[in-house]
Amino acid sequence: MLTVYGALGSGSVPVEAALTLIGLEYEVVEGATWEHDPAILERVRRVNPLVQIPALVLPGGEVMTESGAILTWLADSHPAARLGPAIGDPRRAQFLRWMTFIPASIYSMFWVRDEPARLAGPDFDAQARVKTATAERIADCWAMMDGQITPAGDYLLGDSLSVLDLYVAVVSRWGPGRNRFYSAAPGMAPVVRRVDADPRLTAFWAERFPFEPGWER
């Protein structure tokens, strides 16, 4: 069985969603590292020395980290699920572009945004400026992506939901929030709403990233 080290609403959620759509059995080891619980930190450190989630442990014990890499590997390893274009598909280049862009340009911002003292130090005013600056950077990146990618059907790459759609749907729920995402990326807004409403994921969302009142902020 596959093992996912993750947490509610975290970067493990698109990985768990992909596994759900593929139909693979997996177990989740809860690893909310931001709670700074020593037991959780040690649990995650054993599989990822950076003490970050998600991490995917394969049946043979091999460990994968980096959400974009895990999602791409899952799509490539299970072509019948149609969660990503295969090598040779004309959409492959753009798929790889955006699967790399999200963690490099957007996801990485949250290492600072979630704990601005990491770079700003104890100065609360400096921390507030970091929060504002990262929110603007994230919105700008979504806007750039929106201007460069034109949904080729119901989803970003065509008529089938891909791991790219899952990735965008989850990361766009983090700060500065979905409403800001809708404003910055109006072209992608219908796609993420469609992912939110996918009946195959209704029970999954309710368990791993619930749409609680006010969630769009």
Give an account of the 3D structure.
- It is a single chain.
- This protein has 217 residues and is of the alpha+beta class.
- It has two domains: 2-81, Glutaredoxin (3-Layer(aba) Sandwich), CATH 3.40.30; 92-198, Glutathione S-transferase Yfyf (Class Pi), Chain A, domain 2 (Up-down Bundle), CATH 1.20.1050.
- It has eleven helices and four strands.
- The chain has helices spanning 12-22, 38-45, 67-77, 92-106, 110-113, 117-120, 124-148, 163-171, 178-184, 189-196, 202-208; strands at residues 2-6, 26-30, 55-57, 63-65.
- It has a four-stranded mixed beta sheet, covered by helices on one side.
- The radius of gyration is 17 Å and the shape is globular.
- The mean pLDDT is 97.
Uncertain segments of ≥5 residues (pLDDT<50)?
none
CATH class of the largest domain: Mainly Alpha
CATH architecture of the largest domain: Up-down Bundle
Kindly state the mean pLDDT as a whole number?
97
SSE succession: EHEHEEHHHHHHHHH
Structural class: alpha+beta
* Total individual domains: 2
- How does the overall form come out from the CA principal axes? globular
CA-based gyration radius: 17 Å
Number of helices: 11
Largest sheet: 4 strands, mixed
Strand order of the largest sheet: 2-1-3-4
Query: Helical proportion?
Result: 40-55%
Beta-sheet strand percentage?
Answer: 5-15%
Counting DSSP E segments of at least 2 residues, the number of strands comes to 4
